[in-house]
């Protein structure tokens, strides 16, 4: 019966996107309106596991759900639909998902109409999808990174047929724009500039689960940014696996620095950030654009991964210890106040103590404001997965030494803005103390200060009174 209804709905669906998805959104809405009349509350929850890209996917899912008539809840006990966006960059991200899905079993036993769906990077791995289907039969909806925009179509089918829906695509050349998206903060937004990655670093699963690099049309990006600013957004974060290769996959597209400059010139845009530039193709032009545009934030996240030239070569990173350090030097010359952060992997196959010492040297030289450190995690299907692993004890021991070393060298830069008055974008009420607010400096450092809720979303001048290492206490002027 349900299937027949869906077949009829399907027959009338437009072929082109995004019209097709808007049609399914309307169909869900009509269905929910009837159910709401019978007391159904139509609540949905979206849980994000992973990076900013995954968070952005979560915003898209939420946007579609809201447009279709669901209200968003943070409480899984009351949700009718629970969706996950997943990450598989390291094994512990996968474990996190399994933990969460396992916990949902009792909810499903209580409410057989509950729809649980999973999308994102982890669903692009066949083995993981098989495991979920075998061990967690109450997951109804599985789709991947290339077809996230089709949520409404899949959800409607599941609702009507009560059957499982699994649809996974190997790769896609299509970018579907202009579907709803729900921002977490009214004043801050992220915007995709490209999808996928062509770099094939030998440890990394991203190119396999996100596909080849596809740049969005710069006019579309600009239009989206302008609309966000008109809607009150003060800070935009541009997202791509490697922003520096933006546009290279298209014939007549502008370069990343050109795109950045165009967006920076949108009147009313107070802050512009980007993530992530690869050190191998960080251009002088990009530094100049950062220098010339005051609203481009004073922060560069520059993943090092390893400081050893030999390891970098085996990682397929296309830069060396020396060229990375030369880049840091140049960045600090052009942008003396910039805050530099990084990612480092410890225990890549074949890493010797000498290689590790090279990493320690670069850390001492670069004086990162902060660093995300990871123990190497073997990812099936990547070249490095076949190489001999460093013993676990050695990895753990190096990891501890690295943490201590990073702390020591970041201390030298901590508190360098003490006493200054700097602009803070106020983000939220302080989680720990009453009457306190939390916000960020242009260089991404957190500041806590006293103030009323009405300041949230505003940029205010704050005097930095006390340095707490990674953050400040301040007072609004
Ligand atoms: N093991 C450990 N860390 C990894 N990263 C990516 N792949 C792996 C892996 N297999 C780290 C890199 C990257 C960050 C997002 O995750 O440091 O920059
Ligand atoms: Fe992975 Fe390297 Fe691409 Fe980053 S640049 S997503 S580490 S393959």
Task: Characterize the structure shown.
- It is globular and about 65 Å long.
- α3 (52-67) links the parallel β1 (43-48) and β2 (71-72).
- Helices cover 37% and strands 20% of the residues.
- It is built from 15 helices and 19 strands.
- The strands form 5 sheets. The chain has a 6-stranded parallel β-sheet, with helices on both faces. Strands 15-16-17-19-18 form a 5-stranded mixed barrel.
- α2 (19-37) packs across α7 (151-161) and α13 (321-334) runs parallel beside α14.
- By secondary structure, it is an alpha/beta fold.
- The longest helix is centred in the last third of the chain and has 20 residues, at 392-411.
What overall geometry do the principal axes of the alpha carbons give? Answer: globular
Strand content: 15-25%
- Count of DSSP helices? 15
Distance between the termini: 66 Å
Oligomeric description of these chains:
single chain
Runs with pLDDT <50, length 5+? none
Please state the CA-atom Rg, rounded to the nearest Å: 24 Å
**Going across the major beta sheet, what is the strand order?**
2-1-3-4-5-6
Number of strand elements: 19
Helix content: 25-40%
Distinct small molecules bound, one entry per kind? 5'-deoxyadenosine, iron/sulfur cluster
* Structural category: alpha/beta
In a few lines, what is going on in this structure?
This protein has about 475 residues and is an alpha/beta fold.
What's the helix and strand layout?
Blueprint: H1 2-11, H2 19-37, E1 43-48, H3 52-67, E2 71-72, E3 81-86, H4 91-103, H5 105-110, E4 115-120, H6 126-135, E5 141-143, H7 151-161, E6 165-167, E7 188-192, E8 194-195, H8 206-210, E9 214-215, H9 218-230, E10 235-239, H10 256-264, E11 271-275, H11 284-292, E12 299-301, H12 309-314, H13 321-334, E13 339-346, H14 353-366, E14 370-375, H15 392-411, E15 421-429, E16 436-440, E17 446-450, E18 459-467, E19 471-476
Bound molecules: 5'-deoxyadenosine (5AD) and iron/sulfur cluster (SF4).
